[in-house]
Design goal:
- There is one protein chain.
- By secondary structure, this protein is an alpha+beta fold.
- It contains 18 helices and 19 strands.
- The strands form 5 sheets. A 5-stranded parallel sheet has the order 5-2-1-9-17, with helices on both faces. The chain has a 5-stranded antiparallel sheet with strand order 11-15-14-12-13. A 4-stranded antiparallel sheet has the order 16-10-18-19.
- A hairpin with an 8-residue loop joins β18 and β19.
- It starts with 14 loop residues before the first helix and ends in a 14-residue tail after the last strand.
- The relative contact order is 0.16.
- The structure holds flavin-adenine dinucleotide.
- Flavin-adenine dinucleotide (FAD) binds next to α3, α6, β6, α7 and β15.
Length: 666
């Protein structure tokens, strides 16, 4: 099957406008005759559902939490990008477009990224109108901060709780439609299969997670907004429930899965503490605005710190190695995440790590506290040489900016980050891969759309900080509502899709059979036992640094683990009740397939780009080395039964507006 990205012709800055001018529209009266299913009510699904319902479509939403308010999106901390140029620091639509393409190491589709940059400005207006309390400067204007990979301040934020506030906005918009009867919200429901009728997505099979009932739901189109699949690594910064099932089920029904190996490892997370841990915690990238990253300059000091014989404060400035500032003077601590993560790993691998396991570096706010403290003392006419006063004043400014993050750190680590530097280490955080979509955000299944983190998205091989919220809300509020209308226009006379069709019966049976199999398996090991094993393979062999030998081993080990899982997994309880072990079993079964495809994709991509770092392909300085001649394409995999049989389709990436060059942040 040829991959047609359906990018409209014309100059890049006119494509979206001209597209909107020429697509098919559904008139308001006809929208009332059309049903749309939205799976997922995080920022992407919530914003899409609210907008589609406002337009007049009948929307059914599904989420596995008890409320749309609890989607993983609520965890987003640092902010959302938009090319508003409120700071007058040289930002523009083109610059956001350029930064995103470059940040993604030239592995994303130009037209989609330009559209994203264009609509970014609308998102902020929309959210402000909804009452989202974005941070403001003293004069009342919206404030901005900087995120990695950019030289401007374009990140809008609400303290360290941006996702929560944006989600409340989308959720309020959804609630208005729930109140009007335009959205039927199905919470605590999990989509377990997609139903195709005559090759088109026409419904889903879902399990009511409270009663265990298996339900059939029909619609004229299905939108998947189910988030990312980083929990394939077991340990990650994702919400514990985040999973790949919805995306994987549509993959098995014909949706190609793109670039599964593009995963983002975030540099500033609280380090792993032990084997019994089930979750990792992010310290937002916004902290790199003010925090300086360092390790001891000498191996002796690093050892002394690890052994508790020295404290970080004992080391003078010249005894510290601010390695990001040293290696990347222009971007310093604000290099993109993939670059910062690899640099931390490199220092720790070389023996400079600062915690007991040797896998941590410092994120230090002492200079920022001093700087802000002095500024405050000048503003208030106080003594700028009073050290204690300066620290108190500076700490108050830092608390105002990042207070909740500092509090979270102290609760988890039991150390006061105002007094001693935070310890951080990279952790799995975001997946740039996902279901392949064309310009319309439609998968390779007609009528099945994918938005937000669940699609392979606009971020190429590495997402810039604060761009996931931008993409999810762009897709949901501003892109899908147009593109889906174009698809649905010929469907206005179709009428309700019956759930008695044989396709629904067959899909439901398959779902029930798998559930019965799990319940009756009587194995000896819990689901988590297998998930942890999978996570270890993924982290050790498909993680921050990959090589052909490790990837080949991972492929074999994952396939063997999958076999063992089906033979030996124990799922207690019953099928017709609230049963979280059963839910997990289905999700881990899908991770065990996705994990193998992930490794296969990483093995086939004989280059390093963005978050995909193949040890064989690096410069003398340890930087990622792309191979544009052979790999400037999106790798979209077609399901053929087993991950080992998946067939590769390529979407060549054409750069007409941005020159392909070696990425540099020096
Ligand atoms: C700690 C943390 C901080 C972050 N901070 C930022 C930030 O500051 N800025 C930024 O831009 N990005 C940030 N991100 C990334 C960003 O939060 C996510 O990429 C984004 O919120 C994903 O939104 P989404 O709507 O696509 O998916 P999600 O919010 O993950 O929502 C998925 C939805 O799908 C539903 N679902 C999934 N599977 C099924 C199924 N089978 N059946 C039914 N429902 C299903 C879930 O119930 C949920 O409603 C952060 C991520 C983390 C982990």
């Amino acid at each position: 099957m040829a991959l047609d990205s359906k990018v409209p012709s014309g100059p890049i800055s006119d494509k979206w406008t001209s597209y909107k001018d020429h697509i098919n529209l559904v008139n308001p009266a006809n929208k009332r005759n059309i049903d749309i299913i939205v799976v997922g009510t995080g920022l992407a699904g919530g914003s899409a559902a609210a907008t589609l319902a406002e337009l007049g479509y009948n929307v059914k939403t599904f989420c596995f939490q008890d409320s749309p308010r609890r989607a993983h999106s609520i965890a987003a901390q640092g902010g959302i990008n938009a090319a508003k140029n409120y700071q007058g620091d040289g930002d523009s639509t083109f610059r956001l477009f350029y930064d995103t393409i470059k940040g993604g190491d030239y592995r994303s589709r130009e037209a989609n990224v330009h559209r994203l940059a264009e609509v970014s400005v609308n998102i902020i207006d929309q959210c402000v109108m909804q009452g989202v309390p974005l941070a403001r400067e003293y004069g009342g204007l919206l404030d901005n901060r900087s995120f990695g990979g950019t030289l401007v301040a374009r990140t809008f934020y609400a303290k360290g709780q941006t996702g929560q506030q944006l989600l409340l906005g989308a959720y309020s918009a959804m609630n208005r439609q729930i109140g009007r009867g335009k959205i039927k919200s199905n919470t605590r429901h999990e989509m377990l299969d997609l139903v195709l009728v005559d090759g088109k997505a026409r419904g889903i099979i879902a399990r009511n997670l409270v009663t265990g009932e298996i339900e059939r739901h029909s619609a004229h189109a299905v939108v998947i907004a189910s988030g990312g699949y980083g929990n394939v690594f077991f340990l990650s910064t994702y919400a514990m429930g985040s999973n790949a099932t919805a995306a994987w089920k549509i993959h098995k029904k014909g949706a190609f899965f793109a670039n599964p190996c593009y995963t983002q490892i975030h540099p500033t997370c609280i380090p792993v503490s032990g084997d019994h841990q089930s979750k990792l915690t992010l310290m937002s990238e916004s902290l790199r605005n003010d925090g300086r990253i360092w390790v001891p300059a000498s191996l002796e000091d690093a050892k002394a710190i690890r052994e508790g014989k020295k404290k970080p404060a004992d080391l003078k400035e010249e005894e510290r190695d601010y390695y990001l500032e040293r290696r990347y003077p222009s971007f310093g601590n604000l290099v993109p995440r993939d670059v910062a993560s690899r640099a931390a790993k490199e220092r720790c691998d070389a023996g400079f790590g600062v915690n007991k396991t040797g896998e941590a570096v410092y994120l230090d706010f002492a200079s920022a506290i001093q700087r802000y403290g002095k500024e405050q003392a000048y503003i208030k006419g106080l003594d700028a040489n009073d050290t204690k006063l300066i620290i108190n004043l500076g700490a108050a400014v830092v608390a105002n900016k990042y207070g909740n993050l500092f509090q979270m750190y102290e609760k988890i680590v039991d150390e006061d980050p105002y007094k001693t530097p935070m310890m951080i280490y990279p952790a799995v955080h975001y997946t740039m891969g996902g279901t392949w979509v064309d310009y319309n955000l439609q998968t390779t299944i007609p009528g099945c759309f994918s938005i937000g983190e669940s699609n392979f998205s606009d971020h190429g091989a590495n997402r810039l900080g604060a761009s996931a919220l931008m993409q999810g809300l762009a897709d949901g509020y501003f892109v899908l509502p147009y593109t889906i209308g174009d698809y649905l226009a010929p469907d206005i006379k179709t009428g309700t899709i019956s759930t008695d069709l044989p396709e629904f019966v067959e899909a439901e049976k398959k779902v029930k059979d798998q559930i019965e199999k799990f319940i009756n398996n009587n194995g000896t090991h819990s689901v988590d036992y297998f998930h942890k094993k999978l996570g270890k393979i993924m982290w050790n062999k498909v993680g921050m640094a990959r090589n052909a030998k490790g990837l080949n081993e991972a492929i074999e080990e994952i396939a063997a683990l999958r076999e063992e899982f089906y033979k030996d997994v124990k799922v207690p309880g019953t099928a017709d009740s609230f049963n979280q072990e059963l839910e997990k079993a289905g999700r881990v079964a899908d991770f065990l397939e996705l994990g193998e495809l992930f490794a296969k994709d990483a093995l086939h991509r004989n280059e390093s780009c963005g978050g995909h770092f193949r040890e064989e392909y690096q410069s003398e300085e340890g930087e990622a080395q792309r191979d544009d001649e052979n790999f400037a394409y999106v790798a979209a995999w077609e399901y053929k039964g087993k991950p080992s049989d998946a067939v590769l389709h390529k979407e060549p990436l054409v750069y007409e507006n941005i020159k392909l060059v070696t990425r540099s942040y020096k």
